[in-house]
From TrEMBL:
Cited Pfam families: adh_short
Cellular-component GO terms for this entry: membrane
Protein's name according to its UniProt entry: Uncharacterized protein
Biological classification of the source: Eukaryota, Viridiplantae, Streptophyta, Embryophyta, Tracheophyta
Record has tRNA-binding as a keyword: no
Family to which the UniProt record says this protein belongs: Belongs to the short-chain dehydrogenases/reductases (SDR) family.
UniProt entry keywords in alphabetical sequence: NADP, Oxidoreductase
Keyword Oxidoreductase found: yes
Sample GO molecular function, one term: oxidoreductase activity
Length: 246
């Protein structure tokens, strides 16, 4: 389902991935409240359309739905074509969609942890991922291939290389997205490309074990999404404040 908003007032256009629930849904609500036209995307048409309808019932206007499965190139291409045709541009992308990468267990500590607990055990890996000036896309791909091989080989291989010992896929994926964002920031100085850690938030991903509400977590993301055009780029924000990457 696609909405009928065509941006008559010339507002900024935002896309939020994984916008049907959790932090993403709240990011959509807060961006819309700031006067941004929001394309709420979700991989599931029904969940996405329901989320937009729920916002509308709550009086939130300026949010439309478009399907997006972030791992599907054809779905990405359809969204890009839609944005081009409908708006002719995109001002803000909140790359929010993610999965925890493991099956939930009956453990209250399950889920993403505050950033200080996500350090890699290998100093070498940490330094390489942190070396924003020299890290290339090709090297990042190589590191991820190595991680996948180690992951398939099992815990001893992960430990030998110094990958994180808990929630390894989640943490490595996040570190890789952060590193890739910095590569993008370097390649496109005309854009602002930043990373935002929302805090430890009560959502499905954390089985509601977080310290912050989705509204509070989302506001840490929205602050970064609304940074002015001359603002920082290639920066990591943890709960709204500039922080180191790993
Ligand atoms: N919650 C925290 O404490 C915390 C801490 C640090 C970082 N984060 C990050 O914040 C972001 C939002 O997390 P959350 O806690 O709000 O999680 P959540 O409630 O589980 O929501 C995740 C969203 O991502 C969507 N999604 C997952 N895989 C997708 C795919 N392949 N294509 C499109 N959409 C996909 C989900 O869609 P479905 O409904 O279809 O599954 C859902 O809308 C994530 O990037 C997460 O890593 C969260």
């Amino acid at each position: 389902m696609e909405g009928t908003i065509s941006n008559p007032l010339g507002t900024r256009i935002a896309v939020v991935t994984g916008g049907n629930k959790g932090i993403g849904l709240e990011v959509c609500r807060q961006l819309a409240a700031s006067g941004v036209t929001v394309v709420l995307t979700a991989r599931d048409e029904t969940r996405g359309a329901d989320a937009v309808e729920k916002l509308r019932e709550q009086g939130v206007v300026g949010v439309i739905f478009h399907q997006l499965e972030v791992t599907d190139a054809s779905s990405i291409a359809r969204l890009a074509e839609f944005l081009k045709t409908r708006f002719g541009r995109l001002d803000i992308l909140v790359n929010n969609a993610a999965v925890g990468g493991i099956e939930p267990v009956d453990d209250p500590s399950f889920g993403p942890k505050p950033v200080g607990e996500q350090y890699f055990r290998s100093e070498e890996l940490k330094q390489e991922l942190n070396d924003a000036g020299n890290l290339t896309e090709e090297r990042l791909d190589e590191l991820l291939d190595t991680f996948l091989k180690d992951f398939e080989a099992g815990a001893p291989a992960l430990e030998a290389r110094g990958w994180p010992d808990e929630f390894a896929s989640y943490k490595v994926a996040k570190a890789a997205v952060n590193a890739y964002s910095r590569i993008m920031a370097r390649r496109h100085p005309e854009l602002r490309v930043n990373c935002a850690h929302p805090g430890y938030v009560r959502t499905d991903m954390t089985r509601n074990s977080g310290l912050l509400t989705p509204e509070e977590g989302a506001s840490n993301v929205v602050k970064v999404a609304l940074l002015p055009s001359g603002g920082p780029t290639g920066v990591f924000f943890a709960m709204g404040k500039e922080a180191s990457f790993l």
